[in-house]
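Weekly structure sync, notes
Attendees: PL (lead), two postdocs, one rotation student
Agenda item 3: pending single-chain targets
PL asked that the sequence for the first pending target be pasted directly into the notes so everyone works from the same version. It is reproduced below exactly as submitted, 117 residues in total.
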Amino acid sequence: PASVFSFLAPQRWLEYLGMALLGIGLSMSMISAAPVIINYATSRGYERGMSLNGLVSGIVLSFTFMGNIGGALLGGVLTDSYNFRITTTVYAIVLFVQVMLFVTVTVVDLCQADTGA
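Predicted structure, written out during the meeting:
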């Protein structure tokens, strides 16, 4: 595991738990991305329909697969250059920053929606 979790010995159930949480998180992000993009596109003048749904689906899946390829490439380079523990620590920090940015943007949007801004 990442060096911040060095008190945890590598165990099989911990790997299964991590993969389950990763799958749940990825599915939640993909499910929420499409409606947000569709709402943004319709607010910019695109007409709702099958063509917009196809466009949004293509955009979401394209960026998902680019992230899968880029993440695997970056992870392999970091693991070869350093070691697994440092690589997982770097990924944990990046993921934490992403979650904090997402929470901050969501809270700001909710506050603006409540105030009518």
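Discussion points:
- The chain has a mean pLDDT of 84.
- The helical segments are 12-43, 50-81, 84-115.
Action: rotation student to compare against the earlier draft before next sync.
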